[in-house]
């Protein structure tokens, strides 16, 4: 697939996605704040609430980016716990390590995690699942590494269906976000973003995919008027189902 076609479809090969995030790592935090009016921190706090972690827990944050969700998780587990932030973009990891040198950030492929089964009290992914080349495999890996009864949490942008918010959303994502990308010097990346959201499963469909990999007690909350969906599922005995 040509890169321009992939950007239009919101779908790129893994190497192209990695290169894109390496390229925008320097402006990523600033762009997140501009695009969300700073609300992305609150959404991460709510995701951590659903992860239900506490002092002493060991937690994995996949597609950690510049580490904001991992940092919030670390506040909950305290000095006796451990948070590992994993990402396949070295540019993002470099920013995360500079921001929170006390945490452990390491390279990893979300679809082939290097950790043994039942390694973590919870696993999270914030604004990264839509970049998985194989979403069911990525979800299955999250379920696999979480202890039975632990939580898998997915925080993601979703597409509101009803006006007036749906109209505002189209204006924001189809026009304002690409315009911000042009100002930031990387219009391609911020054309990819809205298109990747459009192709990502809706809240009900994502819940069904989570159930398909063996997660149970799945529920989700919509916030920001329906623009943000936070899903949580409980890992089963045996660490979930393999997708082959």
Structure, explained:
46% of the residues lie in helices and 20% in strands. With 244 residues, it is an alpha/beta fold. It has a single domain (3-234), classed as Vaccinia Virus protein VP39 (Rossmann fold, 3-Layer(aba) Sandwich), CATH 3.40.50. The longest helix has 20 residues, at 165-184.
Please outline the helices and strands.
Elements: H1 3-9, H2 14-24, H3 28-36, H4 40-51, E1 58-62, H5 68-77, E2 82-87, H6 90-99, E3 104-107, E4 120-126, H7 135-145, E5 146-157, H8 165-184, H9 187-199, H10 203-212, E6 216-223, E7 228-234
Parallel strand pairs: 1-2, 1-4, 2-3, 4-5
Antiparallel strand pairs: 5-7, 6-7
Biggest sheet character: 7 strands, mixed
The helix count comes to 10
The CATH architecture category equals 3-Layer(aba) Sandwich
**Gap between N and C termini:** 25 Å
CATH topology: Rossmann fold
What share of the residues lie within helices? 40-55%
Q: What does the average pLDDT come to? A: 88
Which structural class fits the helix and strand makeup? alpha/beta
Q: How much of the polypeptide forms β-strand, as a percent range?
A: 15-25%
Question: Can you describe this structure in just a few lines?
Answer:
The protein has 244 residues and is α/β, with parallel strands linked by helices.
